[in-house]
Specification:
Layout lengths: L2 E7 L3 H12 L6 E7 L6 H7 L6 E4 L5 H10 L5 E6 L3 E2 L3 H11 L5 E9 L5 E5 L6 H5 L10 E4 H7 L10 H11 L4 E12 L5 H4 L3 H16 L5 H18 L1 H8 L5
Parallel strand pairs: 1-2, 1-4, 2-3, 6-9
Antiparallel strand pairs: 4-8, 5-9, 6-7, 6-8
């Protein structure tokens, strides 16, 4: 089973080598590694050149943002199973091998949502992230924990939805999986830790960047699912209930998040 991994890169040189090494050291023999760099001005190019022999396709050119870069990368991909990684994140050892065994054993599954860890700028583990059930309604009400660094999906479902929305600058991964769900894809979650999500000042999550733009994207996705605008009090209350229920129906998530960060 062939895997294609697309990594997008832009001025994340201080984390890039760790991200690249996490891919090339997987130990799985059939991985196509594609890197798309949007003309970085730091030392990213030197790092990519250092690992050039392990990169099957290197694209260095300007783009219209992460979604555009990912579409370019997946346009070159030939694997049966696809995944993507930011240049400041990383895969866990053996992640691709685990995903390969899972898809071989579960041919009816389109998307595997694994779990993982948050880490800081120095690669210290902060806490675990346990992925939860994905559905359109749960997602728009904040009732989904989506760990993109541990997500793998079949090529067919990606091609059916036409890739990423290049106009989404804040939650392009969430919209991708929402599109897949609306297309009828079958999701399955595992608690296996498959990756690391880095929180730092330069990231959207860690730095609080693009908050207003994220709200615009979130409202647009809400309208796509519900065919209406949010009703302020009703939908905010419903969102609170959905998020609370997430903990009730996922006791492992609650336990790991608040009581045992080692799990």
């Amino acid at each position: 089973m062939k895997f294609s991994v697309v990594m997008i890169s832009f001025n994340q040189g201080q984390y890039l080598e760790e991200a690249v090494r996490s891919v090339v050291s997987q130990g799985y023999s059939n991985v196509e590694f594609i890197v798309v760099d949007a003309n970085s001005t730091d030392d990213s190019n030197k790092i990519l050149e250092k690992y050039r022999s392990s990169i099957d396709c290197l694209i260095i050119e300007s783009d219209y943002g992460p979604s555009d870069g990912l579409n370019k990368g997946f346009g070159r991909a030939s694997g049966e199973i696809l995944s993507f990684l930011n240049s400041d994140d990383a895969y866990a050892a053996g992640a691709i091998g685990f995903a390969a065994e899972y898809f071989e054993a579960n041919p009816e599954v389109d998307i595997l949502l694994g779990s993982g860890y948050f880490m800081d700028s120095a690669s210290n583990i902060l806490k675990p992230v346990i992925s939860t059930k994905f559905s359109p309604s749960l997602y728009i009400y904040g009732g989904v924990t989506l760990f993109q660094q541990g997500a793998f999906f079949r090529r067919e479902i990606f091609q059916r939805i036409g890739g990423f929305n290049i106009n989404n600058k804040t939650c392009w991964d969430g919209e991708l999986f929402l599109d897949m769900a609306l297309e009828g894809a079958r999701f399955e979650n595992v608690q296996k830790k498959l990756g690391y999500f880095r929180i730092h000042g330069g990231s959207i999550t860690g730095g609080g960047n693009l908050i207003d733009l994220y709200a615009v994207d979130a409202d647009r996705l809400f309208r796509r699912v519900k065919n209406r605008r949010r009703i302020f009090l009703f939908d905010h209350l419903l969102g609170f209930i959905v998020r609370a229920v997430k903990y009730v129906v996922n006791p492992k998530y609650l336990y790991c998040k608040y009581f045992d960060p080692r799990c």
